[in-house]
Fold each of these.
Amino acid sequence: MKNILFLLFVSICFIGCEDDAQFDPTLFNAELSIIENLENGVPVLDITSQTGMDALYGLEFGGGFIFHIDAIDGTLMVARDYPTAGNVVWGDHFDLITGSAIGDGLENTQLLVNMNAEDNSLVTNGFEFGSDDYVFNIALNLKHEGFDDWFIPASASMKAIFDNVHAKGMGNFNQTYIYWTSTKEGYYPYVMGFNLNSWGGEAFTGSCFDVNGILVVRKF
């Protein structure tokens, strides 16, 4: 009898262990939500192959709202309003061209911080703001929603945020604000409004001497 009980115990343990070994939380599970799959570490492209990309847009994950998915490597970009800062300045005034494509924002933001560190009162038509309390420095030093790798989006990213999140009635973006982008042509920065009726989801040129809102993004 003891031998029979021992064999039964071993069999139960073996079956249980086999079931545990077969369960892999990083495999897509249709019975779970998209966010639960993401939190379990399921690769983004494994999820989108089952749901399509549109199903992820606007979902809150990683500190912000998903607005872009890289179809090659599965990296996500998320965006979030940062209303605590209110309307803030651009910084120094100088001649510079920065990128407009989705993904250019991090390099743009770092470049603009580097340029603000120069004495721009010495360049033609330059103006020295004279403080570190400007949009790009605020973004690079921001600790928000548990993350510290935020930056200011390029103009194409801002349009994607509008189209893929805000226009769907998702996100936390303020329709009364004009937001800075990190795209600049010469002396003219691009800005973006989120009013569905007035601005149409297109970035437009503003002025470095204005004050505007902060919308930050991160990529992971």
Amino acid sequence: MSAVETATPKSRPKAAPAPAANVFEMPKFEIPKFEMPTAFREIAEKGIAMAKDNYDRMKGVAEEATEVLEETYGNASKGCSGYGLKVIEAARTNSNATFDLFGELLGAKSYAEVVELSTAFMRKQFDTLTVQAKELTEEAQKVATETAEPIKESLTNAFNKAA
């Protein structure tokens, strides 16, 4: 054996690339099946029943609160509209009185008559404004009371249920 044999490395066969979907698949684990003890099952069933009961109660409370809010906003809206109408009526009355004064002042023949008309207007207007302020205050109190009433009733009912 005189000839020198050169060893050629053996080429290994290349493996086919794995499909991309297999790389990201979750490994499959099998959960062993066993019977749940009766005590645990009863506790779980009681817990589920309590959760359903609490959900039903909370749902009822939320529906009641929604009704109270709707009623409150309705009362507030009606009350504000009524109050706004009273303010507009007072402004109309005051404007008409002022225009009437200007007409009378244009017909005045002397400075003394102008002073007399102006003084009488101021006295009458002071009385009118006093009455208007009283009416607007009463209307505002009425609106506040009617708006707060549903909330007050709801809280009273809630405390009575809790007691």
